[in-house]
């Protein structure tokens, strides 16, 4: 385990020298930050049509179990901000996928993997450092974005929306579901990266991982799915279990011989 | 000490290394010589514990290398890969610091300074490796290889593509490591380097074709001819030679020399020299003909049609 730290430090240093690699994460974060404020606040203000005038939105927003003290507009804003919160927390991971899917195959192509494997570094340590190397910067950017997101809600949303956002559901999304889904996605990307011999292939496979996430978001916005706090807690724990399983599988499938001798 | 015992490695139907046995002793440099695809890199990787042999075994300091003890035994090994394998965006010092961490070195900075000084690249310590010349990158990679003071060095083409000055400094450094007690195995294409550097040369072509010290390898191809180089036209002295050696001995004129295939050179050479002097020849050189290591290598590889 002691070998993770120096390799992780290298990952951060490398990333710090290659800041453009984080641009996709930052762009996705900015877009997902701007989108809910545009839909929930800016567009109604510009068009002069309040959100509460849309009966479908009023109906769907009741799923959010908002406090009765909120106006229709406030309840719809709360619903939208809650829904966008999940999207906001998860989508930056799709940007980090490029980092993760490049992790092993990139080292191989740069011919830096073999000297690394000649050290006492273990497979679990190598893969963990690679996952954390993509996860930590992503979560840091997400965290900064989250602070702006919650601050923006407090400043611009209808009265009471900010307070209503401070719920167990929000906490579970931020503290459990988002990091767990990031871990699963990045671990899967690392697994793919150690099984394919070309960075482009790794990225193409990595892109497939966002499909279930996109499906979940579409279902949420259509109002057909509303995940309760219990459901989110179970999903979060389930994702952690999947991550542990993926970690085990990644280590088991990491074939240093094939990587060293068959990849060109 | 590192020992390979009946090492065999197959990749599907292809055999890369076949039943190779040798060892590299303490304070010894062995050069691993062979053409492309001879199995040199595969052998080095097996010795470094990076890939497992299909059969056979590797022992490091008397301990058999296994999957379980691989990480611990790799602490004793410094492995220079064919490519320097440095992270381009990191400086030389940062590259070395990562490896110091991976080897768990407590006095990392002091060790890094030491190896940087050793290779005279301290002034480039804070340069990103992408900015370095090929020679400096190779020096940085060698510095990384020596960072943890390994007792065994496995070096894959350490001087490939380097200029003569850098090559010489690398050679001197390996001499120092040998004197310090290291067991060193160097893979190379460079016959001159093998001869200058190595105590023994192992010729590999999937199988171990030969392993011996360079002089002994050359002796295998000794022709038994005596070469006498004279001033002026050597053919003028042919009658004098023939009068001494008789008609059954093959005497040839080769540029400024006479080449004689005499059955007992130790006994006959003084009389030949005396006869030449009596005939007025100015003798510049008398020597037994020895093949170059290259000739031995070509012969062993069978490229001369004779096979090994």
Please give a handful of descriptors for the protein shown.
heterodimer; A: 264 residues; mainly alpha; 12 helices; elongated; B: 308 residues; alpha/beta; six-stranded mixed sheet; four-stranded antiparallel sheet; disordered C terminus
Tell me what you see in this structure.
The complex is a heterodimer of chains A (264) and B (308). Chain A is mainly α and 264 residues long. Chain A is built from 12 helices and no strands. Chain A has helices spanning 4-16, 23-47, 55-61, 72-109, 113-117, 123-156, 161-165, 168-193, 199-208, 210-221, 229-253, 256-261. In chain A, helix 4 runs parallel beside helix 8 (168-193). Chain A starts with a helix and ends with a helix. The mean pLDDT of chain A is 83. Chain B is an alpha/beta fold. Helix content of chain B is 35%, strand content 27%. Chain B contains 11 helices and 14 strands. Chain B has helices at residues 40-47, 70-74, 92-102, 108-118, 134-146, 164-179, 191-197, 214-219, 238-245, 265-278, 293-301, and strands at residues 2-11, 14-24, 28-33, 55-60, 63-64, 77-80, 152-156, 183-188, 200-205, 207-212, 226-230, 250-254, 257-261, 283-288. In chain B, the strands form 3 sheets. In chain B, strands 6-7-8-3-9-10 form a 6-stranded mixed beta sheet, with helices on both faces. In chain B, strand 12 and strand 13 form a beta hairpin. In chain B, helix 4 packs across helix 5 (134-146) and helix 9 (238-245) packs across helix 10 (265-278). Chain B is elongated. Classes of the chains: A mainly alpha (264), B alpha/beta (308). Chain A binds chain B through residues 2-3, 5-7, 9-10, 13-14, 17-18, 110-122, 256-257, 260-261, and chain B through 11, 42, 45, 48, 50-52, 71-72, 74-75, 77, 79, 81, 83-90, 94, 97-104, 128, 141, 144.
């Amino acid at each position: 385990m002691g070998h993770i730290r120096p390799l992780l430090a290298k990952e951060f240093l490398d990333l710090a020298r290659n800041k453009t690699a984080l641009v996709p994460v930052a762009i996705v974060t900015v877009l997902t930050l701007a989108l809910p404020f545009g839909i929930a606040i800016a567009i109604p203000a510009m068009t002069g049509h309040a959100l509460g005038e849309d009966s479908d939105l009023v109906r769907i927003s009741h799923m959010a179990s908002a406090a009765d003290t909120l106006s229709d507009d406030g309840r719809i804003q709360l619903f939208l901000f809650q829904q966008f919160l999940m999207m906001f927390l998860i989508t930056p991971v799709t940007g980090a996928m490029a980092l993760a899917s490049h992790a092993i195959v990139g080292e191989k192509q740069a011919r830096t993997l073999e000297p690394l494997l000649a050290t006492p570094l273990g497979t679990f340590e190598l893969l963990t450092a690679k996952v954390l190397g993509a996860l930590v910067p992503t979560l840091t950017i997400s965290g900064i974005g989250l602070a702006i997101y919650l601050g923006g809600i407090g400043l611009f949303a209808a009265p009471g929306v900010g307070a209503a956002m401070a719920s167990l559901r929000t906490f579970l999304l931020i503290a459990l579901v988002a990091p767990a889904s990031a871990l699963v996605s990045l671990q899967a990307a690392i697994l793919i990266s150690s099984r394919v011999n070309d960075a482009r292939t790794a990225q193409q496979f990595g892109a497939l991982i966002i499909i279930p996430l996109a499906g979940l978001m579409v279902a949420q916005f259509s109002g057909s799915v509303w995940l309760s706090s219990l459901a989110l807690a179970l999903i979060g724990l389930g994702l952690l279990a999947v991550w542990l399983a993926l970690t085990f599988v990644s280590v088991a499938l990491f074939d240093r011989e094939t990587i060293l001798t068959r990849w060109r | 000490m590192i020992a390979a015992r009946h090492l065999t490695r197959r990749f599907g139907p292809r055999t890369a290394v076949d039943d190779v046995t040798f060892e590299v002793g303490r304070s010894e440099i062995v050069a691993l010589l062979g053409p492309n695809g001879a199995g040199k890199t595969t052998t080095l990787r097996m010795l470094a514990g990076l890939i497992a042999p299909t059969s056979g075994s590797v022992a490091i300091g008397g301990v058999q290398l296994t999957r379980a003890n691989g990480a611990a035994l790799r602490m004793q090994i410094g492995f220079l890969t064919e490519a320097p394998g440095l992270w381009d965006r990191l400086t030389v010092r940062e590259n070395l610091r990562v490896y110091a961490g991976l080897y768990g070195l407590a006095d990392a900075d002091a060790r890094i300074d030491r190896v940087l000084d050793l290779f005279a690249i301290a002034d480039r310590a804070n340069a990103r490796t992408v900015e370095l010349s090929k020679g400096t990158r190779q020096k940085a990679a060698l510095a990384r290889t020596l960072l943890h003071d390994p007792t065994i060095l496995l070096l894959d083409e350490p001087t490939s593509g380097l200029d003569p000055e850098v090559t010489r400094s690398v050679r001197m450094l390996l001499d120092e490591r040998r004197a310090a007690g290291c067991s060193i195995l160097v893979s190379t294409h460079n016959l001159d380097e093998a001869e200058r550097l190595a105590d023994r040369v192992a010729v590999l072509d999937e199988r171990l074709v030969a392993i011996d010290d360079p002089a002994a390898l050359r002796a295998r191809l000794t022709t038994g001819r005596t070469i006498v180089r004279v001033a002026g036209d050597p053919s003028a002295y042919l009658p004098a030679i023939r009068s001494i050696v008789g008609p059954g001995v093959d005497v040839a004129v080769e540029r400024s020399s006479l080449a004689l295939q005499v059955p007992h050179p130790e006994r006959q050479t003084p009389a030949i020299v005396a006869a030449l002097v009596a005939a007025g020849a100015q003798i510049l050189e008398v020597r037994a003909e020895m093949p170059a290591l290259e000739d031995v290598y070509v012969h062993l590889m069978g490229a001369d049609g004779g096979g090994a």
